[in-house]
Amino acid sequence: MPFSLRYVLAFSSVAFLPLASSAQQAAAPPPPPVTVAKPVVRDVVDNDEFIGRFQAVDEVAVRSRIGGYLNEVDFTDGALVKKGEKLFVIDQRPFVTALNEANAALEVAKSTQTYAEAQFNRAQSLATSGSQSVSTLDDRRREWLTAQANVRGAQATAERAALDMEYTTISAPLSGRIDRRLISPGNLVQADQTILTTIVSLDPIDFYFDVDERRLLNFADTARKLGKDLQQGGGGVPVIVTISDPTAKPFTGKLDFAENRIDNESGTIRIRARLANPDLILQPGLFGRVQVEASNTYKAILVPDEAIGSDQNERVVFVVGPDGKVSTKPVRPGPRLYGYRVIREGLDGTETIIVNGLMRARPGATITPQMTELPQERRDTPPDNAATETPQ
């Protein structure tokens, strides 16, 4: 081979070695960026969650106290009514006649009483002078007393007729929302039997739910620490109730009643919470979830749910060391509070954990940590499910 050709080949091989090495270095990707943070450490109180149903504090089936034909309906179906507001009118003509008749009978009885009293006074005067026998005086006294009794009877009849006349106008016995009319004008109403409509109160409103024996003891203990009794007034333990509408804010209230015994078949006891409902959002029959305090205050370690991963049958979090290397730590999750998941075991709160980008990290790999600070409470998460723990 000519010398010039060998020189060119040798120079080419030497010249391309640094270029290949530089290309390999340029192709090596940098460690992936991953968001990391310290866990939130704060004082918390565990909550238990139950499903229950709202129920009106007061509910009335409106009936008529007298019988007769319905003449008027003076409300709009489904409207809000106030106590004393006129709802129905029974045909008043028969009751006007009865009242007039009773008043006339009362006038007759009063007239008879006046005459009997005068006769008695006259007989008493004559008997004193000896011109009237004692037996006649006794007869006049008996007639006067009978006339007085007749006046009292006629007065009672007139009052009853006036009361029946008053009952022809049926008013709302309480304030609340009225149902539709269940009978139309012209129909016969049976006294104390025919249901005309129903009314339920709305503010405040009650929430009933069932509690098992174990958690009942926790609630009773919490109530005792508040200096109250669970059955009498429900212990005053604060509660938070949420409804199925995710946009509705939670409603707050307090326990105010518990039944006096545990059901033998279900092993549960029914408890009631009372909540203010000024906007009338809550309706009787609506389902909801109630959260009740189930522990004393303690220091808890909180992490986002998205920071918890799975390793076979274990729950783990990804911890980043000072050198940027990733390792895993098994944890035991607890309930959700303040938008985070409580970590029962596995962390002490000083670790730096991956909170976003778990898919870009693996144990033993090096990452580029991007530090962030978690807020004490998250508002951009679904409502907490404090009664449900993540499977171990």
- Order of neighbouring strands in the sheet with most strands: 2-17-21-20-19-18
Shape: elongated
* Sequence stretches where pLDDT stays below 50 over 5 or more residues: 7-17, 382-392
Distance between the ends: 75 Å
> How many distinct beta strands?
23
Strand and helix order: HEEEEEEEHHEEEEEHEEEEEEEEEEE
What is the domain tally? 4
| CATH third-level topology of the largest domain | Elongation Factor Tu (Ef-tu), domain 3
Summed up, the helix count is 4
Q: Work out the helicity level.
A: 25-40%
Structural class per helix/strand content? alpha+beta
GO molecular function, one term: transmembrane transporter activity
Family: Belongs to the membrane fusion protein (MFP) (TC 8.A.1) family.
Signal peptide: 1-26
GO cellular component, one term: cell envelope
Give the key terms.
392 residues; alpha+beta; conserved putative lor/sdh protein from methanococcus maripaludis s2 fold; Elongation Factor Tu (Ef-tu), domain 3; OB fold (Dihydrolipoamide Acetyltransferase, E2P); 4 domains; six-stranded antiparallel sheet; six-stranded antiparallel beta barrel; 4 helices; elongated; RND_pump_MFP; RND family efflux transporter MFP subunit; transmembrane transporter activity; signal; MdtA-like_BSH
Model description:
The protein is α+β, with helices and mostly antiparallel strands. It has four domains: 85 residues, conserved putative lor/sdh protein from methanococcus maripaludis s2 fold (Beta Barrel), CATH 2.40.420; 99 residues, Beta Barrel (Elongation Factor Tu (Ef-tu), domain 3); 59 residues, Beta Barrel (OB fold (Dihydrolipoamide Acetyltransferase, E2P)); 75 residues, Helix Hairpins (Orthogonal Bundle). It is 28% helix and 33% strand. It is built from four helices and 23 strands. The chain has a six-stranded antiparallel sheet, with no helix packed on it. A six-stranded antiparallel barrel has the order 3-12-15-14-13-16. A four-stranded antiparallel sheet has the order 4-11-9-6, with no helix packed on it. A hairpin with an 8-residue loop joins strand 13 and strand 14. Helix 2 runs antiparallel to helix 3. The C terminus is likely disordered. It is found in: Cell envelope.
